[in-house]
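Shift notes (night). Ran MTP large subunit lipid-binding domain-containing protein while the centrifuge was going.
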Amino acid sequence: MLVVVSVVFGKDVADGGEKQSKLVQREQRQEEGLDKEAGVQKHDDKLQGKSHDHRSSSSETPAQDAGRTANKADEKKVEKLVTGSRAQARSRGGSTSMLLYEYEFVSETEINSNSDADKSYSKRESQIVTKLNATYAFDLTHYDKLGGILGRYHSQSRVNYVLVVVVQMIKCNSGPCDYDMPDLYVDFVQGGNNINNIFTNTSSKTKWNILLSAANIVHTPAISGGGDHQTVVRCFKIIIITPYGLCSYHFWRPEDKIFKRRVNKCSFDGIRNHSLIASATVHSYEHMIEYIQNAKMNADIAYIEADEKLHITSVPLKNALDMNIHTKTTLTMVNRTKVYVEPLCDMEETASECAESRLSLTKLGKSWQVVKQNLWMGLLKKIMEKYHKIKAQKRLDEVSENSDGSFIFSELVDAVSLATTEQLLETFEDKRNDPFLGVFTNALGSAGTMRTHRFARDVVLVRKQQFVSKYLESVALSTKLNDEVVDDIKVVCDEIQWLFTELAKQEQPIEQNETKKVANQNEDVDESKEALDHNRNFIRQIAFAYATLLNRFCKSSKSRLNACNNHKDKNVNEFIVAITKCDRRDVDCNRSALQILVNLPVAGVVPYASQFICSKDNSAQLFLQKNALKLLAFVETEFIETPVINKLLRIFRNACPLAQSTTDQTLTIDVLMNAVPEHASVDDYWKQLRKFKLFRNHYLHRSLKAMSNVYNVKIAESNNHIIESTSKTEFNNEIFKRSDFLISVRRQNGHQNSPVLALTVDTAGLANVVSDSQSEESDMDAYEAPEAVVQLSLFGSSLPPIKIFDSYTGLLSTVWNADGSIINAHETNIIWRQFVNVIPLFNGMTLTNDMIGGFSLKVSGSSKTSILNRDAQSTMINDVSASLDTKLTLVNGNGVVGNLWHRLSASGSVVLDLDVDFYAEPYLFCAVVSQGPLQLKYASTKKTMSYYQRIDNGKPKQNKFSHTVITPPHCYALNRRSTEMCNEMFKHKE
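Came back to this:
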């Protein structure tokens, strides 16, 4: 079933050119003598015995014994072929010798899971084992025009001899190998056995098979003449292109007649490879191959043992996801025959020229990366296209009923990615799906293909404009960074500045004519202003999404990140120029630019943001400095230069031309804590901070007018990763100013902090409305109208902020309507992990690895304010469900051999309760984080099909396992200060 090529490793013979013909004749006579004296079978038995003695292998299996009996019958056919070929060659007067080899291919593959849940089941029930035994043949069809012997170098010029090798399948002895395989032709260089090109004798799409696997095992990237110990270096890194991706490679000779090759540390790019959480899943591949040469005079490879391992795990969820694929393959020479035939090609033709011009073969490629692209590597698309119509409809109907919406959404994204435009339109126009079009729009954005983008742009967003925000927040975090989609969004972004200008022109006449409008015209004015607000919001949403996409492109590789930070990326530069092209007096334009650039915190935004901090401009001080400080907190510390740090220190010391609010001072600390250690030693840094009055012992408790609370809650911990929530609340002069709530995944060493959910509430102008006392802080608030803004961030991508109220009227309306009823604030679905790849294995089969992780979020809340009791209660409920599905499918030429599917899911809620008592100053407040019931699910399914079941479309043998754990709700412990304040407040209420 597989072809092995006769190779000489590490042989470097410097024979004189005049001696070459004698050398060829002498070796031909010696080889003929071996065939006559010892016999082909006796010679093969010795080779077989040596290789098996070296391995200390067990006795033959019944399948192998049957293969031996079949080989004896085939031996007579080979002998007849040899005799006939010699007679034909002599009668024609010209001939060339060709070596014909037969190898036995034996392989065993085991797929299993070592997760904690699987350990409760027997190993036999939870693993897939596939064994096969086959025999294949190959012959040397053509010598290159340089001539020579197998494995020898040309004398003097030392040019490698090049051959075309034909690999043919002979017999499937047992296992899933009985399917058609086209002949395989390999143009390679002897000595290092390097591949020049691979060809096949069929024009149709070739599947990965045993013959290709044999060529992959036998042929190495070792450099001919490069010595017995070598690595392959590419771009100053020890990596090569393999069927698995870019890998590290090592080739060496531990002892005479034995060579080894190791390939590991592979970078699995995959058809799709998307992750919003670092180290969410890790693929580790390694194979080791040992070659044993014939101990006699020729340098044939008598025995090969290949060991291949693939490990799939999750760093934070190692105990829940731990899958292993192990393949062990042996190639054993069972026959070697010399045949005399008429040459197929002229000696002047190269091997590739002979294959393409004379034999009319189809070229698959030179590198394995190209070969893999020209193969049919699995049945994933065929399976999905068969079922996606039914599944898409079913999933949409189940979304509202199933609490674990993330899993349904993950499957929906898979189906949408492969759907045709007609199928998408059919789903969209089905009236039964109207309640679920929001989820459908999220799936279109998450798919990230040009087809889904065009459908969303031309159909969904035209007919259902209310779903614009859902599509844009999903496409910003789509599973595929598609250049065409980004370019299409860029076309709109290029017009942002022009649109902002036009909107401003349209808005001015409306404001001037408001007082001149008569009563019956007021409705038209309101409609015009509403249209302008809608257009402005639409532009902002596009800008937020485009900034996130650009940031993801920048972070996709180190070279791109350097280009973005060094002002060498054209798209990033043009976007920053367009978004910041605002008049300095235009507060709204500059504030929007600062908020949008939080999603693109490259080095180029620092000069723009720094002009608004510690400024003499009163409007910049009041309305822009806070947003500028928030932007600088996201910028890498190496780009915060000394002049900016000096400005930050003046804000912190309240030494700027204008008085500084405590909110801005606390925001400054966030930037300084990140930036200063990069520019000074840690010791000097803390010495300088201790000189500030606010950092002296006990000074903070006596003089700071602000009252804040910051505490961290560890939600879960696993394998050096922590899921935690951080809550910050700030009161200035007993007036609520802002709160930040963050859920993130962090490594314990402090590096790689991956934000999952962040919710920020900012207020301004409340001092004169709520408090009777006068202070410097309240005087600053006098310049601002009452305002409250909420902003949500998902996986580091900020959404446009939403205003709760922005006037006295809005504040009063909010207070009167705060009756404690539940309000659905936001609902979204995101794919946080997707990996799709097809991996060719040494057993001649392919392994399809399909992995997808979904995240569903529903934010709701309630607020109740009592003017009579002068207190307020607010609750924010975050209903979260997350899932990770991993499916391994083993496929051969006839179809699916078996698959192993694992699903991890979790659903629960995180609740933030905030109680405020403003009966008397200082106001009391209590913030508590709690967790509702948490449901953890683990499910596993194993399916296997025999050969006859695949042929007859029978039902597979199936084993299913599931495990569910429900943890009770509980509140997280507060720190001492928070506990004291909560106790004091509740005592007052009693």
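The two ends are 84 Å apart (CA to CA). The CA atoms of residues 756 and 795 lie 4 Å apart.
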